[in-house]
Amino acid sequence: MSTHPKQVELESTMRRLCDDLDHYLEDTFGDAYPLHPNRPERGKASSVAYDGLFSTGTQFTLGYGSNHGRGYILSVEIRTLSWVQKEKKETIEKAAMEYIREILPIYFPHRAIELKRDGNVYKLVGDFSLGDSSNS
Fold this sequence. Notes:
About 35% of the residues lie in helices and about 20% in strands. With about 140 residues, it is α+β, with helices and mostly antiparallel strands. The chain has a four-stranded antiparallel sheet with strand order 1-2-4-3, covered by helices on one side.
């Protein structure tokens, strides 16, 4: 079973969105904590998701038990062994979510996609349709 080309395109766009977020967080908060010892410095890995202080990504969820249904959970992880103060984590999280809301229309200009708080996670919800498979 192969993956639909429009699904591949959608997930590629999601990855670029997360890479953009990662760069923003590194530029803004990258010196806040020492890196995890197993983590390469920013720019040293093949993907921004695998180096520097931050790791960002999305994961699809069907949304069972969710107030917002299916969508993509947005993950922002701080890769350090140091203790991260709750207030600092909240500041980083707030900045990340504001930035995502700002850049969503750039990455998905023709889709109604929003970032929502869903319990203790943030989720991208909205139009993730692939359209007619005969138009691929």
